[in-house]
Amino acid sequence: MNTDYSECKEYIDKNLEGVDLSFEEALHLFDLPLPVIGGVADEIRKKRCGELVTFVIDRNISYTNRCVSRCKFCAFYAKREEESYVLKKDEILRKVEETVAVGGTQILIQGGLNPELGIEWFEDLFSAIKRAYPGVQLHSLSPPEIYFIARKERLSIKETLERLRAAGLDSLPGGGAEILSDSVRQVISPDKISADGWLDVMETAHRMGMKTTATMMFGHIEHDEDIIEHLFKIRDLQTRTKGFTAFIPWTFQPKNTELHERINEPVSVTRYLQVVAISRVVLHPIKNIQASWLTQDFEVDKLALFFGANDFGGTILEENVVTAAGKEHKPANVEEIIKAVESVGRPVAQRNTAYEIV
């Protein structure tokens, strides 16, 4: 396919000038050869972020695997009651202590939608963590969890967030977004929060001054049009609120899930890099695009740094959800991340949740 350079320059200029792409323009990005869309995204990244690559020392703590949602893409939730668990507060505090001991700054606490856990359980946990480790940033509870707690307690989203924030919650991770198209969600997660519900939680948090990240899980039943719909919804909310610190696209891992018979393998590396690049081009209001070595690997993450990504993600000292879907997980150490980034000629620095260099 022949690609006119002027067309590519137009995409770069529109992003840098903060001009929204039309749906047709954004969809056309999928037609560009991979080196071309990668080059466009890399040029935008250079202008927006410079050469520095960042990472965070963090841990993902899954406090419970009991979940009434039972999404078809998930292999983590307990299939039988005897397999379910809720971590004790002391166990969670021990995990936080281990993270802090190696220089960790970010704790991501996420789990299933467990009807036995009320808001006071989370308030007690967060306040205990903050008392013991005041410097830790609690980047915890995705929009489906916030929405579920609010409904259980008959509180508004704002009231729920106010109480959790007072207890120590700092920011929200972007989990539970999957694809923000209800036609897709009706198939893969029919009992979970709607696309508008997810966006409402995030907008409420942003209006309160809380920062959040945004994610997208792709490589299952979605089409290109669904990906663009998702990106546009994230873009438009960010234009209104400026509350997203980063966007993280990651690939569905089908093994051990209900969708495995339909989708045998994760999408290809080229598809992953294509979507990372398109995300960079479309999401002009969001500065940071995070690569996902958890669902790819270090070699692919290094490539992603030339397809629009400027962040290497976290060390992820613990992870259970993607691992349950058959993806082998080995925590990354700081030295490995530094070596990987420097091997492609880029400077690297540790950051915190707010993307401040530490």
Task: Give an overview in words.
The mean pLDDT is 92. Helix 6 packs across helix 7. The chain has a single domain (36-350), classed as Aldolase class I (TIM Barrel), CATH 3.20.20. Helix content is 43%, strand content 11%. It is globular and about 55 Å long. With 358 residues, the chain is of the alpha/beta class. Strands 8-1-9 form a three-stranded parallel β-sheet, covered by helices on one side. A three-stranded parallel β-sheet has the order 2-3-4, with helices on one face. Strands 5-6-7 form a three-stranded parallel β-sheet. The N and C termini lie far apart (45 Å). The longest helix is centred in the middle third of the chain and has 18 residues, at 224-241. It contains 14 helices and nine strands.
Q: What topology emerges from the helices and strands here?
A:
Blueprint: H1 5-16, H2 23-28, H3 34-49, E1 53-56, E2 58-62, H4 89-101, E3 106-110, H5 119-132, E4 137-138, H6 143-153, H7 157-167, H8 182-188, H9 195-207, E5 212-218, H10 224-241, E6 244-251, H11 269-282, E7 288-289, H12 298-304, E8 311-314, H13 321-324, H14 334-342, E9 348-350
Parallel strand pairs: 1-8, 1-9, 2-3, 3-4, 5-6, 6-7
Helix pairs in contact: 1-3, 3-11, 4-5, 5-7, 6-7, 6-9, 9-10
